[in-house]
């Protein structure tokens, strides 16, 4: 009697079977321009995602499956998923989808020939350590769903979003309130690099004030709101007197229920390093030395920060940022008033030199920054709305600083709780440089 195939016992096999057809259906009427559209120069187009799917099929998954099938405990080398795009090559989206479809068909034929017991085989990943054949199969289906969602988000943003007028605002509001999970959340450890305070707000509507209180004759102007903020924090002189800052605490991840230690180092004028120890995964690090940025995580290893993220880092990691918001955002406008936690808050629409936009919310009474809104497109999840709340302000050497930061998306919340904040601790500049490995 023939052994049962692993394809019959793995519940995600139908996802692997349907992915090429699902993408063909979604992209039936997509034009070449639609496929090649990038929200920004550093973000992927649909054609690039399809090229990635075709390449990672063999180099990221099948090669590792075959290694484990051939030898229990096989060595699984790390794989640079971004190398495909470093040459600046252009991709034909339709051709890449055809290539992906052919390769997936071959992959499925091979998987169906394997016995269910193969799922217990293991390999040793160069960076992640030991993983089983079945665990990699689960990541295979997870990876498909993430990129299906990404392509859907790109397509709807390119084709439909521009024609929605200000119903776009309603869409964002409903999505943020919805308690149900969307198609697939990001992997828990990948979220940990969300320590960045600002990312690019990709899509915005100038009539955001539809959900804000009407502006009255007594409404403050931009200068008044910013001046109140600086004074509430502690004043310009006190802000600029600080030469360095270290913070220790934890980050809670609502997606997987983990709590991880986090440590942050910052040094004037704009050096930054965040280190997070993720349970059962390893260390996640992001650094900015004032000119160049880098990151290291359990999956991608050590890699350079993208140009778009470097642009954001230049303004985000200014240690004296509270006193320099006008320099960070040359264009700022008052957008109205809203309620946050039963308190009035003034809204400023802030636009940096690169043209991206975010919303800053300042408590009308205390003057402190209480929220920031922005959107970004991620590799795993497509367009994601981020809402960052700043809470539990504490007095630290004469400065008011938030000890709790909640970074929320429709899928998950990361809550940073800092129990120790120190100023003017000696930090070697070399700490912020990209390590050799």
Broad structural category: alpha+beta
Roughly what percent helix? 25-40%
The count of strands amounts to 16
Distance between the termini: 51 Å
Most strands sheet: 13 strands, antiparallel
Low-confidence stretches: 166-217
Model description:
With 437 residues, the chain is of the alpha+beta class. The protein has 2 domains: 6-163, Up-down Bundle (Four Helix Bundle (Hemerythrin (Met), subunit A)); 188-261 and 317-429, outer membrane lipoprotein receptor (LolB), chain A. It has 12 helices and 16 strands. The chain has helices at residues 6-9, 13-26, 32-36, 46-70, 93-112, 133-159, 167-177, 188-191, 222-233, 236-241, 307-316, 325-328; strands at 74-76, 122-125, 129-132, 244-253, 258-267, 271-278, 282-288, 293-297, 301-304, 331-340, 343-351, 358-363, 369-378, 382-396, 399-408, 413-423. The protein has a 13-stranded antiparallel sheet, with helices on both faces. Strand 7 (282-288) and strand 8 (293-297) form a beta hairpin. The longest helix has 27 residues, at 133-159. Mean pLDDT is 83; it is low at 166-217.
